[in-house]
Amino acid sequence: MPHTMSRMGDVLAGFHAAWEFESDSVLIRYERGIRTPKLFQALGERRVPLSALQGVTLTPGRRGTVVLRAEPRPGADPLLEAAAGQLKEGNDPYRLVLPAERETLAEYYADELRGLLTESGPAEHHLVPAPEAPLHFKAYDAKATFDGAAVQFRWFWTGASSAKWKAGDQSFPVAELSGVEWRSPEVFEGHLRLLLPDATADPPAQPDQDPAAVVFGLGYGPVHESLPFAAAVLAAVRARGPVAAMQTAPARRDPADIAERIRHLGELHRAGLVTDEEFSVKKAELLAEL
């Protein structure tokens, strides 16, 4: 008997989200209520092609609930690839929690959805859209921004190490990156590190000393901000074309911004964190950006 879940717009609503079933995809709309996980609110909605899924489960939940979960194929979703298994259960965007009395209805949709899935195993490329740029968030030691073409780290003088201040603000074109390493701020020493293709076999520097990384802290780099950021960068890296041969001229800085950076550099110099020579060299570099 052919499966009947081909009607457009069938909706199954649960706690914090609703799944709308289409002939070739599932549109997941997340609520924006105060009890909804912040990651779901940040995602808003996601259209998941059926080709990105390889299974469906229905299991008992807590406190009189059942949990419908779609199982994405490895590599199909840049968000889960960036998360690398670090998401807590409550932040899993593929779980739909429903009251136990709706178990029969949930089982119906699970069976229908299983019958439409034809793919399995690792996906050759991302199939679920990544969060859209521009994106930004505040880490403990920098403000990170991504405009779709390049990632920029602008150091905070109150949090950045002297090594990062000496290196100066960083800009990483997507074409120069090989990947992203995200470590959840909900575990010890969370960070976001950009991976470079020419990295040596030596162990990477500690994130607080690495100009290609920003570190998280209490209230800095929360999951709902830093993970979508990491996913967007990862998706851009995977989809990038060949490196362009031409180089663009560096953008000119706001004079007021340059003056503020020189003032902060002077404070580091007076505190003994920057030598006379380093102060002179970095000051000259900043003035050259005017």
From TrEMBL:
Residues 19-113, 144-233 form the DUF4429 domain. InterPro entries: DUF4429. This is DUF4429 domain-containing protein. It comes from Streptomyces brasiliensis.
